[in-house]
Specification:
heterodimer; A: 280 residues; mainly alpha; MetI-like fold; 2 domains; 11 helices; globular; B: 282 residues; two-stranded antiparallel ribbon
Amino acid sequence: MEDLTKIRKDKTSVVLNVLTKISAFITMSVLIIMIAYILIKGIPNLTPDQFSLKYTTDNVSMVPALINTLLFTFLSLLIALPLGIGSAIYLVEYAKKGSRFVEAVRLTTETLSGIPSIIYGLFGMLFFVLYLKLNYSLISGVITLSIMILPLIMRTTEEALKAVPDSYREGSYGLGAGKVRTIFKIVLPSALPGILNGVILSIGRIVGESAALIYTAGTLPNIALNVTKSGRSLAVHMYALLCEGLYMDQAYATAVILLILVIGINMLSNKIAKKIGEKV
Amino acid sequence: MNRFKEKGAKWLFTAAASTSILFVILICAFLFVNGFDTIGKIGVVDFIFGTQWKPLNNLFGILPMILGSIEVTALAFIFGVPTGILCAVFLLFFCPKKIYPKMKSVIDLLAGIPSIVYGFFGLVCIVPLFRDLFGGSGKSIFTAGFLLGIMILPTIVSVSESSLKAVDKSYYEGALALGATHERSVFFALLPAAKSGIIAGVILGLGRAIGETMAVSYVIGNQSLLPLNIFEGGRTLTTNIVLEMGYATDLHRMALIATATILFIFILLINLAFAFLKRRLK
């Protein structure tokens, strides 16, 4: 079939064919240029004093920011995971299709996933920082981030739960297990890889977030020793370096570390997605 | 005991599901109450249609930023949408099986790169390049549109791809049987059938572009004048906030929050359009 169509190619077809190839080439090369440019110019700027445990204006260390990023990630997931997984369980296992409540949940989740991070940042500032008087602190940032990643976790978990065959549930009911037991012992374990993928995507989102954190967690360059202290994540660290304008080299170095983190997270997610694919 | 457990669990899951409703209400309430209050103080017409943003003189007109956002988004579309759709077509119908997973992971990676890194790349690579090509400072609405075009690519590609996948294969086979080439069958039979799905994807990209902050702020130049020439600097709604929020006080600060309110209204309209289209598709 392929050969037959090849014989009769007219001009339009050839042009269209070439156009798709050019577009694909552009997309690929943009990414390659970007990564190569940042790595080549950035790696020479990775100096040991940027990795000392304490930040000073001399060493501009990114380690405190890195540790804060870990804190942000861990604590945000701690809040968003139970909420997101719980909502997904409700939507898949309990909800009556087409009920008003379900429609409202879906519409609001879509709305949340469409809100830009700067709006989250300002909302976090108005609500957590000023209204609840939590000040610029780890906790303000963490709650803001949790709201941001909630729709992502909900969506991935929902898809994972839907992919669990009904025969699993029926088997469990048939053996006399109740609904809650079925959900926790049968459905959730089978959906675990899908949920894990959602977690990894969320981590990627948190690591890269800057606009939502600047106005909620502040930009102090030290490790946030408790949740009421202000602290900057790695992306915010980069923002601060670029703002001050004096630390271009260090900004390059931070960009390298951010890129490596994001590429690593991406590879992990691909691996898990592959595993899910194999299982199906 | 068991009955109690089942009931309790159902109640807990329902409560979890209602949090997203609660959050949206909270966000709306805080942004609208604060924003509308300020807009009332400044005056609706003076705020939305005012052409001068001079906080020191108490002039808060955001028309330049509204136009800036619209121009940047339009440019992002010109660069991003055709490339994205064509790239999706390539992935599905022209891509050798061996390269496909590699291309997919490249596109995932493009989506995962933080916007601050995009902005940095724009600042150190694209801005100098455009300075040499077009003269001026290199920071302009055009540069921002170009960078945003790259940033919305993954969204456009993945949504176009899934809506092309959803089209019945018989469309393609029918076109082939009528004597059309592979390319013509794809472009004139499959693509029109996937149109509404692709439009939904484009609207999603619109939301991304108009809400993008960090990346834009490094390449757009940030002048708060009316953006009459796209090769000169400008400001978007988002960059207006991020530039001045750090030191603004009193009415100035409130005016920035009101800027976010206007942006939020744009985003809500875009979201509604997307939700509407998606439901119609089903």
